[in-house]
Structure formats: C-alpha cells, structure tokens
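Q: Hi! First time doing this. I have a protein sequence and I read that you can turn it into a structure. Is that right? Here it is:
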Amino acid sequence: MLGVLLALGAAIGFGATGVTARLSVEHMRPTTGTLLSLMVGGAVVFVIAAIVSGISEFKLEPIAYVWLCAAGISSFVVGRLLNFVAVSRIGVSRSAPLVGTSPVFAATAAVLFAGESLNTFIIVGTLAIIGGLAIVVRQ
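A: Yes, that's right. Below is the predicted 3D structure, encoded as structure tokens:
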C-alpha cells in the first residue's frame, strides 16, 4: 500500500511540474528552465538522500553508477528538457497526457531488456494508454 501512495505522490509531483514548467517558460527559454530546475532539484535530492540514508549509501558498485547516470541523463536531462519545450509549444493539458505514455515505453523496455513478461493487465493497460493518446492527438 505504501508503494501505491508513493506512486500517487510522484504523479502529483509530475503533474505540478507541468504547471510550474508552463509558468516558468512564459518568462524564460525552456533550456534555462530545465537547467535551473535540475540544479535546484539535484541539490534538494542530495540533501534529502544524505539525511535519510547517510553518505555511506553512496558507496555503490561501479556498474550501479553507470546505470544511475544513464537514468539521470534520459529522465532528468533529456526528458525534462523535452517536456519543458513541449509545454512551451502545446501547453500542459496536451503535453501531460503525451508524457503520460511513458509506461508503454517502460513496459516495452522491461520486456526486451530486463526479462519481464507480458500479462493481461500490462497488455490492457498499454492498449488503454494508446487509446487515450489517440484521443489527445486528435484534438
């Protein structure tokens, strides 16, 4: 149950990001907004992680750093920049549902690269996301 609540909290945070990104890109370029949000977010996350887990938690195997860097670049850098640009061009209400299709890409990558298997729920959920995407794109 805690995992579900945390995921909903993440969804609220991502939703708020769209709105705050829209407000910021009205006054600056998306690249500037991305850079500032990454700097502030990175500092806050580092402090919270150090407080909650301690500095010793940062002693990881080298491969873990490689994967974490890849995740950071794809999500926080590329994903956030493209999100800010999309928000500045088509608005939050149209870009957020498109960004919300990320489970389709995550499920595909998990099956192809992480050895996860498809089941009925994943297939139905993926089809529902694609159907929602078709509705948003037609507007």
